[in-house]
Fold this sequence. Notes:
With 650 residues, the chain is of the alpha+beta class. The chain is 40% helix and 24% strand. The model is unreliable at 436-444 (pLDDT under 50).
Amino acid sequence: MKEEMSSVDIRYIVRELQWLVGSRVDKVYHEGDEIRIKLHTKEGRADLVLQAGKRFHLTSYVKEAPKEPSGFTMLLRKHLSGGFIDAIEQHQFDRIVKIRVGDYTLIGELFRSGNIVLVDSENRIISALRYEEYRDRAIKPNAEYIFPPARENPLEVSFERFLELMREEGDLELVRALARKLNMGGLYAEEISLRAGFEKTTPVKELGDGDLLKVYEAMLGTFNDEPRPNIVFKDGNMHDVVPIELKVYGGLEKKYFSTFSEALDEYFGRITVEKARIEQTQKLEAKKKQLLTTLMMQEEMLRGFEKAMKENQELGDLIYANYPVVERLLEEFKRATEKLGWEEFKKRIEEGKKAGNRVALMVKEIDPKEKAVTVELEGKEVKLHVDRSLGENAELYYENAKKFRHKYEGALKAYEDTRRKIEEIEKLIEEEMKKELNVRRIEGRKKRWFEKFRWFVSSEGFLVLAGKDANTNETLVKKHMDKNDLYCHADVYGAPHVVIKDGQKAGEKTIFEACQFAVSMSRAWSQGLYSADAYWAYPEQVTKQAPSGEYLGKGAFMVYGKRNWLHGLPLKLAVGVVNYEGEDFILCAPPDAVKAHAKSYIVIRPGKLKKGELVKKIKAILEKWGYKVREEDLNAILPPGGGEIEEVVG
């Protein structure tokens, strides 16, 4: 089963991802040997995964970001966040990718254990996933980054050079010669042999120049074939993921994809999830095995305590059941030991056994130290202390029975606790095993058109939109504000444009909520204000026409005519889960709007708590309610600046 991308795979994925050039780097995440670059592209959000020694593609399997970013993460964010991708390249035909962002280049080494290296404009190493030294190069801070020794590039080799390479070791089989001399794996060497019409095991020396020309042309044709990304299955299991149709996999089951990134993501994403699931169940199974061993020991102890408790109870009862006999034996043994002493007593008992004396034959053991004689009663051995009465001897057994009963009860409690733990672990294992491999992808669904803006649904059911930045402000007013809408704006410099769709049918509540949204999403929030003013107007009053001698930049508009003011609007919002058009969304909107559509919500207002801390608190509350949400998504919907939680309902 394939575990890393080949040079051919990298060639195709690099060609496919050229549309990402010009995209802005939003944030970088790092965990283990993998980094994820969150991008803002012309198509919206995209997540690019680069795993050292393994893979490079767009992904929709977005992991939860580590709570504490690593030092490597912070350096990558410092130099790359906010920058734009200028180039995505493959180094020659090697398993090396380069992502250039402004003055910096991120280099992903996908061979062997791999590495991820950040270099500056002079090719000096700023940081790396791990620092290493080789015979011909070193990965360490401030050192010049040197690529591994170059190998032959099959895409650039001339036919004359190709012949020269093939003839160097004529005894080699064709498939081995191609793989060894021309930097391609065995799979593609076999594919080229098949396309050229030769057995892969054919010795090169048996092929003429004309034959090798066919091989050369098949090689160029293979590496420039039309993409047809697919996952190959063997016996119902994933076996390989390839960018083109391969003859070597003829007859095998295949699943095709519209892009190679989608195929790679499905293949490696499922492997990642499967490995995580196996690791999780392995830990649980190991814990279960440990508990089962404990349970067996506890069962053995319980049986021992129960047996001892029962035996002692029965022996105590046996003494009373044979009251006359035991009382007489105690009197005789006491009198004899006092008169003869214990040694002579033992001697007399042995002599009595030989003579067939009935009492002597009852004696099984004599213990002078404990002043005790063990006798057989009704087939059971009973130890009788000659210096104690019959009742005292019986009580000794009852006391022992009581002690073993207490031990049994304690052991039973521990046993039941262990069984409960095993049942809990078995449920966890069962839950893990039930999890589907094709887990729901967070970014898999197609985003709705209004999600590119800040938005909410008013208490009266009207869709309200607001810009996020200059670009979305421009787009909102120019492309999405119609003649039947209403326009709102806060009396705060740089505040977002707000549009109530079909707003001329809306009531005062919706207009109030839209204006409250306008002031709350402005810089008035980060300034800690508790109220601000806003107004509403009609679409025809909003224009890009600036006063004479003035210029309106991107996202800026003029409003002419009457402005309908609302004064002293409270800066207050609520976070809750709202169902809109059959889909659940986590929204941050005016409290009355959220209350109308959600049973549970969190009311916030400007405050001293940093935004990151506020996000964590809201996230924790939502998770208690059963909603899984990422911090970055919450961060995107909250207003600028810090705040505090005023009320939690639900």
